[in-house]
Amino acid sequence: MMLRSKCGFILMLVVIALNGFGQSDTSMKLSYANFLQLVKQNHPLAKQANLIPKTANANTLLARGSFDPKLFYEFNNKFYDKKNYYELGNAGFKIPTWYGVEFKTGFERNQGINLNPENTTPNQGLFYSQISVPLLQGLIIDERRSILKQAKLFQELSAFEKVNTINELLYKAGKVYWDWQLSFTNVEVFQNAVKLSQERVDAIKATSNLGDRPSIDTVEAIIQLQDRIVASQQALMDYRTKSLMLSNFLWLENDVPIELTDKTIPEIAVENYENENALLSNLTKLDSLINNHPSIKVYDFKLQQLAIEKKFKKDKLKPNLNFNYNPLFDAKNLSSGFQNNYKWGLVVGFPLLLRKERADLQLTKIKIENTTYETRNKRNELVNKVKATFNEFNTFKNQIDLYSKNVLNYRRLWLSEKRMFDSGESSLFMINSREMSYINAQIKLNEIINKSKKAGLDVEYSFGVLNTMY
Length: 470
Hints:
Layout (H helix, E strand, L loop, with lengths): L1 H18 L8 E3 L1 H11 L1 H21 L5 E11 L2 E14 L5 E10 L14 E9 L8 H68 L5 H32 L16 E3 L9 H9 L1 H6 L2 H22 L4 E11 L11 E8 L5 H68 L5 H36 L2 H4 L1
Helix pairs in contact: 1-4, 1-5, 2-4, 3-4, 4-5, 4-8, 4-10, 8-9, 9-10
């Protein structure tokens, strides 16, 4: 008898501890919308996504640098055996332009006893200018223009890559939140089951002491209580594990991670999906949403980049023909440059077999073809995914309506059996059976609601609108 009383006291302490979980007046509810907003604002991956446009801007700036004017200065001197063989000085600047034409101007002054006659300049020096014009290859497009055009496209592309990254992050975070919320509601169900079981143990003990019930019923009731305590502890352990997983997505503004405590609890999941009207509205404009889906836009911009690359590779099949013209100006008489003082020339080059150029063009065409197939496949996947996830969402929504009625019916059966048990017209086995059916029904309803919430999240994710909704 003392052993039984001691066990009962220990069980009572465990029950009190379990019932105290999550019930503090200082508990703070973390809603689904607030959680996703925190993730979007402070999570390192969200901040990393903000770097994508900055990287694109830096790449564009880098590409523009190819068109920057450049100053230059060259000086060479040979002094040997106490003799100044030659001094060559050349300074100026170059101006590349968008259309492939390059301008150059400078000042050249050379002297020395062994100066190459080709390098001879007046004593005062020689001003010169140069215009270089590509007549075939490089006239329509060249490497610099190709890189800059692609960099500008990458700037636009980066906005959609950022959205894709944040959508993926919010999708994963949303899944974890609903798992956390499910584990919390299950803890509440099991804690309530422990409470009911404890009340039954107390009642049976009282009636057993009066001789109205056999003492073996007390043992059975205690076994039932112990089983439910174990189930409640497991549910609590699962909840705390899910809380830690949720903590992975929670950060402060200064990049400090947050670890949730038992005082932070999820919002109670309502049976109806809050954004159902928005989902229905999006479904009516499915084609437009898919065409503007961030994942599809990424492929579109990749195709545009490859089109620029193809144009550049195609231009490489042309012969290299550059025309150079250099008017020369005597430092004493600058107007002489446009009379008889000039240099000019042609630079011609053409690979005979063009194997490298033809292979580059062929590889680019293959890339375009591959990307086109990927785009079509991705679009088809998105359309089917939207339809499949929306179908799941509707199915779970109907199941919620149906199973909510089941839970009410299980509750009616349990309450009816409880009244019969209290009046001595039912057995402990029957009341436990009815009660377990009611508890299991609550757990199953929680799981269906959870699946419904996840299905709604799947629809939003497949639409590609998570970033704009939270």
